[in-house]
């Protein structure tokens, strides 16, 4: 067991038990947030190699960077779900659980005798969360779903590029994460409802549905105009000026979402006359004359450095930012002041840095994290403490290849 794994974790979900069959990203991100909020999360992994992400380089000791990023504060148990004894362990744990989370293709959990219709008979209070790529009733239901596949089908990838360039996937796995985030909304709503009714629900979320739901005003552009939004790079489809502008030694982001900020920006440029110029006076004027305005701004901003413009933009209260690398962002004073980075210690792997959860209650962030577990690191402890097995029973399951408990 990882150091301090048995330590109580205060939080609004303290006392809630989550049985997590999910793997890779959609699902593990959701269960990690539940753990951050104080829930006890038992991650059920295949006995052979565990969650597929355990094998993705680079590594910190025996742990993959990918696995570390998504599995803090969880217990890992490794059992053989192809064996009846392994299924029995899973069902016994499900009877004690408040939430079950899985992200297999439709039908897989049913074939394992762990589907919702089976488990709700044994635990009517169980909230059963399923994250799929496309949903059980989609014509794409049986199609393998990965983030990039759903991004392509959502339409989002078609606009994630500069005009005339090849489409790009988003820099973060947003479709996977959207599935996790919307599943959290559903699980927490069902948990609230259960406090009233005493009964759980089956909460289903599709990754593709989730990313389409996050398109926001982009969908409405199509509904209102009949035209699909076109790629504009860092610019905005309907707000000008907005996006990345070149300086003499780099680029700066400027975002003028209101008339006040547009006026501030014009003054910052030393070109107050742009405010009353009929080509640029109103939103629709600037949009219609985007290219002319962009050319004027770029000519002016290329004359000075990034540092010059960042200081001047701040002086004139214009929403702006440098374009940081991931490393620069993690080392930025904001990350330090908000205590977004923490160092945890695993007794075998040693120290590792993690990004903390962003949710604060009464000004306090999450409790200190517990390092991600090695595969099956907590199996024996869970079997003893949760299912009441004795040492001989646990050892027998190891001998027969039903469970894995690393020494």
What does it look like?
This protein is of the alpha/beta class and 407 residues long. The protein has 19 helices and 14 strands. The strands form 4 sheets. Strands 8-7-6-1-2-5-14 form a 7-stranded mixed beta sheet, sandwiched between helices. A 3-stranded antiparallel beta sheet has the order 9-10-11, covered by helices on one side. Strands 3-4 form a two-stranded antiparallel sheet. A hairpin with a 4-residue loop joins strand 9 and strand 10. The longest helix has 24 residues, at 174-197. Residues 1-8 have low confidence and may be disordered.
Q: What is the fold's blueprint, element by element?
A:
Layout: E1 17-20, H1 28-36, E2 40-46, E3 59-60, E4 63-64, H2 65-70, E5 74-79, H3 84-96, E6 99-102, H4 108-111, H5 116-122, E7 127-132, H6 147-154, H7 156-159, H8 174-197, E8 202-206, H9 207-213, H10 217-225, E9 242-246, E10 251-255, H11 259-268, H12 273-276, H13 283-288, H14 290-301, H15 306-315, E11 320-322, H16 326-330, H17 333-337, E12 341-346, E13 350-355, H18 379-385, H19 391-399, E14 403-404
Core attributes:
CoA-transferase activity; alpha/beta; CoA-transferase_III_domain; transferase; formyl-coa transferase, domain 3; CoA-Trfase_III_dom3_sf; Rossmann fold; 7-stranded mixed β-sheet; disordered N terminus; 407 residues; CoA:oxalate CoA-transferase
């Amino acid at each position: 067991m990882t150091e301090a794994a048995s330590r109580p974790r205060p939080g609004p979900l303290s006392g809630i038990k989550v049985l997590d069959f999910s793997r890779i990203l959609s699902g593990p991100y959701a269960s990690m947030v539940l753990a951050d909020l104080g829930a006890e999360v038992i991650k059920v992994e295949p006995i052979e190699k565990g969650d597929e992400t355990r094998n993705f380089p680079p590594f910190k000791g025996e742990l993959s960077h990918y696995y570390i990023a998504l599995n803090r504060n969880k217990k890992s148990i490794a059992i053989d779900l192809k064996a009846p004894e392994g299924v029995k362990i899973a069902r016994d744990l499900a009877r004690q659980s408040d939430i079950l989370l899985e992200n297999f293709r439709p039908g897989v959990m049913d074939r394992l005798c762990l589907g919702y219709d089976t488990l709700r008979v044994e635990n009517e209070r169980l909230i059963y969360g399923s994250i799929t790529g496309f949903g059980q009733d989609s014509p794409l239901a049986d199609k393998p779903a990965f983030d990039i596949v759903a991004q392509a089908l959502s339409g989002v990838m078609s606009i994630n590029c500069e005009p005339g360039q090849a489409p790009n996937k988003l820099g973060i796995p947003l479709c996977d994460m959207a599935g996790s985030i919307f599943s959290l909304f559903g699980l927490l709503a069902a948990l609230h409802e259960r406090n009233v009714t005493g009964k759980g629900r089956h909460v289903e979320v599709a990754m593709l549905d989730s990313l389409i739901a996050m398109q926001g005003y982009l969908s409405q552009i199509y509904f209102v105009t009949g035209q699909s939004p076109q790629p504009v790079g860092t610019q905005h489809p309907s707000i000008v000026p907005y996006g990345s502008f070149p300086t003499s030694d780099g680029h700066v982001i400027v975002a003028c979402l209101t008339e006040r900020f547009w006026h501030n920006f014009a003054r910052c440029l030393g070109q107050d006359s742009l405010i009353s110029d009929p080509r640029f006076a109103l939103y629709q004027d600037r949009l219609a004359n985007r290219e002319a305005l962009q050319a004027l701004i770029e000519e002016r901003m290329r004359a000075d450095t990034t540092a010059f413009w960042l200081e001047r933009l701040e002086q004139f209260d214009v929403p702006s930012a440098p374009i940081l690398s991931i490393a620069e962002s993690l080392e930025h004073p904001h990350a330090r002041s908000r205590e977004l980075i923490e160092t945890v210690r695993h007794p075998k792997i040693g120290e590792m840095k993690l990004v903390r959860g962003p949710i604060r209650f009464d000004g306090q962030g999450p409790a200190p994290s517990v390092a991600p577990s090695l595969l099956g690191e907590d199996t024996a402890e869970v079997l003893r403490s949760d299912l009441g097995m004795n040492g001989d029973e646990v050892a027998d399951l190891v001998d027969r290849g039903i469970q894995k408990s690393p020494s």
